Amino acid sequence: MENKTRRHFAPEEKAQVLRKHLIEKVPISDLCDQNGVNPNLVYRWQQELFENAAAAFQKQGGKDSRSQRLEAENQALKAKLAKKDEVIAEIMASHVELKKSLGEI
User: Fold this and answer.
1) What's the average model confidence in pLDDT over 34-48?
2) N or C: which end of the chain has fewer CB within 10 A?
3) DSSP 34-90
4) Cβ-Cβ contacts under 8 Å for 27 (sequence gap 6 or more)
5) pLDDT in tens, 51-85
């Protein structure tokens, strides 16, 4: 019994295979022979490419969702820090007033 291990292709490798087919017009059968893959796999990659193509254009025009989430988190943390700074300033003012009233300053 022959033990076949699955090959895992990096996204760059998948893109290169699809680029050869879609741009250079290399037949899928030739690409499969060159890379030792089943044609169904190449067709699946092609389907994934087109299903996710919109995401490539969304990132160009604006921020992606991760970037937006990080920006929102950053703004929330800045607001929280500013609030803490205000509280510390109030406590320090009260402390100075207390020291003045006790004659320590």
Assistant:
1) 94
2) N
3) HHT--HHHHHHHHHHHHHTHHHHHHHHHS--HHHHHHHHHHHHHHHHHHHHHHHHHH
4) 21
5) 888 877 765 545 567 888 899 899 999 999 999 99
Q: Determine phi and psi for 53, rounding to 5 degrees.
A: -60, -35
Residue type, 101: S
Please tell me the pTM assigned to this model. Answer: 0.52
Phi, psi of 102 (to 5 degrees): -90, -5
User: Which of 17, 26, 24 has the alpha carbon at shortest distance from 44?
Assistant: 17
Contact between 75 and 67 (Cβ < 8 Å): no
How many Cα atoms occupy the beta-carbon half-sphere of 32 within 13 Å?
Answer: 12
- Kindly report, residue by residue over 6-37, the tens digit of the pLDDT: 788 999 999 999 999 999 999 999 999 999 99
Provide the token pair at 97.
């007033």
